[in-house]
């Protein structure tokens, strides 16, 4: 797949809440990078570890109040997708946030994902 095709597919799957299929777009040796100050690992390596990290994060959500997945912007082998979420977490309370998700594509798979957002004061 081209970078544009990967970007379009990721956005489609996220909008349909088909997250496991979305993570199937990642390379086996992909890397995910979170913001400094967030609980857990800042850098997660490997598709399975990234998926498990997502599951752990999702299990911490008590209620989702809203959110959105924007359209991708592609430049060469990178793309960015704006996303937002308003959720109440089991620990930490309600958090509404906007983020930019930046992806690098290599050989038709997401090789790296990095997320940019304001880190909340939780707890």
UniProtKB/TrEMBL annotation:
InterPro entries: NTF2-like_dom_sf, SnoaL_5
Domain SnoaL-like: start-end pairs: 1-117
Pfam families: SnoaL_5
Gene3D superfamilies in UniProt: 3.10.450.50
Name of the protein this chain belongs to: Nuclear transport factor 2 family protein
């Amino acid at each position: 797949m081209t970078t544009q095709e990967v970007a379009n597919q990721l956005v489609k799957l996220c909008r349909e809440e088909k997250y496991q299929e979305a993570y199937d777009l990642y390379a086996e040796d992909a890397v995910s990078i979170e913001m400094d100050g967030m609980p857990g690992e800042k850098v997660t390596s490997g598709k399975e570890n990234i998926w498990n990290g997502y599951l752990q994060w999702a299990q911490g959500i008590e209620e989702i109040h809203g959110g959105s997945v924007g359209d991708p912007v592609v430049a060469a082998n990178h793309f960015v997708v704006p996303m937002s979420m308003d959720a109440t977490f089991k620990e930490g309370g309600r958090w509404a946030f906007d983020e930019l998700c930046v992806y690098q594509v290599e050989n038709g798979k997401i090789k790296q994902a990095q997320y940019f957002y304001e880190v909340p004061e939780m707890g």
